[in-house]
Amino acid sequence: MGFATAHLPVLAALKDGARMSQTELARWAKVEQPTMAQMLTRMERDGIIRREPDPDDRRGSLVSLTRQAASRLPAGRAVLKQGNADMTRGLSKQEVDTLTSLLRRVLGNVEAMETEAQAQARAQDVSPVQRTSKSRRPRV
Q: Is-contact 73 17, C-beta < 8 A?
């Protein structure tokens, strides 16, 4: 199909003709800006996305899927669906539902941990002036 697993969040966000900024896509995919920038550059090179000037922000651009990529999405979804079926072969529907529910809870815990770690990092961040004055204090 020409898609990579890493493209999935972007493909999902831009399906149905949506247009989003790089910042919005990074937030959606839960990745850092530089990571998203690199991926979008590769996706643009491969003809999956296009960038257009953002009419509301002269410095920014909006990202959307190319027609070619959008036309391949249904086949890509079919491949994913088959892959999911292959991975859960031998499990009942109830077991698959339980597995999905448990994985969502684990993901929620991971996201909460990340949010908490970011909040703690911000709380512990010290201004450059404070860092300088602390580093000049004599050691006891």
A: no
Give kind and range of the element (H or E) at residue 49: strand 49-54
Q: Quick one: how far is CA 14 from the chain centroid?
A: 12
CA-to-CA distance for 70 and 15, rounded, in angstroms? 7
| Contact of 23 with 33, CB cutoff 8 Å | yes
Can you give the pTM of this predicted structure? Answer: 0.68
Q: What is the mean pLDDT of the segment spanning 58-70? A: 92
Instruction: With CA atoms as reference, report the closest residue to 26 among 44, 6, 46.
Output: 6
* pLDDT tens by residue, 35-53: 999 999 999 999 999 999 9
Query: What six digits make up the tokens of 65?
Result: 């899927």
3-class secondary-structure state, position 55: coil
27-40 burial: b if 16+ Cβ within 10 Å, else e = eebebeeeebeebb
Distance CA 125, CA 81 (A): 44
